[in-house]
Amino acid sequence: MTKTARIAAISVLVGIAVLAIKTLAWWVTGSVALLSDALESIVNVATALAALIAVRIADRPPDADHPYGHHKAELFSAVIEGVLIILAALFILREAWAAFAEPRAITAPWTGLAINLVASALNGIWAFVLIRQGRALRSPALAADGRHLLTDIVSSIGVAVGIAAAALTGWLWLDPALAAFVALNILWAGYHVISGSVGGLMDKAVPEDDLSALRDLISEHAEGAIEAHDLRTRHAGRHTFIEFHLIVPGEMSVHDAHQICDRVEAALREAVPDCTVTIHVEPEHKAKHSGIVVL
């Protein structure tokens, strides 16, 4: 099992632990806001499972049916997470509306808040780990899971403030109002998770800053060539595909042109560890006199 898969597996266990703690907090208080917080944890467990499955699939090597690998499985996972998040938010809104129509008193609010605080602390620690490792391992599934946990923490803080205010003032409407706030926050998170993943599924290019860095690397390491043009990039999960045309003098031997390609490819691989580089070598009369000038 790879490091990415191990982290995804731990996420499932953390999600189950947080769900159990938050369910206990709801059971003690009867608060619809704490119920909404627990329901969001069910989504956390489901998304962690989806991320684990996707990471295991993405780690498979290329095969005859998938010659470019299985990297996009992580992006599908992130889209599934977004859909589950939105469904949870709609369910919470339904519960909040029912509580508005028939307000219910909160029992043992301070005990429930103390229990919920333990779950929030656990979520906060693990969200930091997921986002940090997701970036380091270039894993969209782990990063998306971490960002979702951050929204869960924000929701939990809002819920805690609202329940404390309801307990001190006796305003029962604050409980469903906070549940509705949680739902809207979850909807916003779901939108960002889905929009970020759709870009990868649509073969969106790397950010302009990264693209500029790639151009500089090609320019610096393609000595002996004339120019490079038609640079194209795309992400597939943690993997990056880079391709471009390299113009060399017409009289240059295949051996010498290949050495230039090897040098450029090595520099790109060092800068972007998980990448596939495709270089199309062309003779001088194919030059476009635009694109990347070789230093």
From TrEMBL:
Keywords: Cell membrane, Membrane, Transmembrane, Transmembrane helix, Transport
InterPro entries according to UniProt: Cation_efflux, Cation_efflux_CTD, Cation_efflux_CTD_sf, Cation_efflux_TM, Cation_efflux_TMD_sf, CDF_Transporter
Superkingdom: Bacteria
Subcellular location(s) of the protein: Cell membrane
GO BP, sorted A to Z: intracellular zinc ion homeostasis
GO molecular function: cadmium ion transmembrane transporter activity; ferrous iron transmembrane transporter activity; zinc efflux antiporter activity
Pfam family, one: ZT_dimer
Entry's Gene Ontology cellular component terms: plasma membrane
Family of the protein in this entry: Belongs to the cation diffusion facilitator (CDF) transporter (TC 2.A.4) family.
Protein name: Protein p34
